[in-house]
Design goal:
Length: 136
């Protein structure tokens, strides 16, 4: 069991922090929308921005154990992280609008479905483009 955990530690960590990031996103979305009365598109953007900030630090330090050599490399990783998250945000927002406005799916289920697609995209982007290991 221990060997299996070490073999898949990165994926397991990503899933754990991905779930935490998703919870941050969903909670902020519904607080903004239902409690503060903000339009669902703006609520989605606020939830996205804050959850991406949370995800950057958890992915950098706990999932991919990426160490930066200087402030420039730290900023580069953060900019790449946000760039690729913007791409997945476009997918997120497009799916939300499609499901809510065209397919008339409840915002709850639309949000749940979009988060699955976003988690898969974000892992791919993080693993292969943002926190990729340097070849020695």
């Amino acid at each position: 069991m221990k060997e299996l955990f070490h073999k898949y530690k990165e994926v397991i960590s990503y899933l754990v922090f991905g779930v935490a990031t998703t919870i941050v996103n969903i909670v902020i979305f519904f607080i903004c929308k239902d409690i503060l009365g903000i339009d669902y598109k703006i609520s989605n953007a606020i939830g996205w921005f804050l959850s991406v900030l949370f995800a950057f630090f958890t992915n950098k330090y706990f999932v991919f154990a990426s160490n930066h050599e200087d402030i420039g490399s730290f900023i580069r990783e953060m900019l790449l992280f946000y760039w690729y998250r913007i791409l997945s945000f476009v997918v997120d927002m497009a799916l939300m609008v499609l499901m809510i406005e065209w397919l008339h799916i409840s915002d709850f289920w639309a949000k749940m479905v979009t988060q699955v697609a976003v988690v898969v995209l974000n892992y791919f982007f993080s693993k292969f483009f943002i926190f990729k290991k340097k070849l020695s």
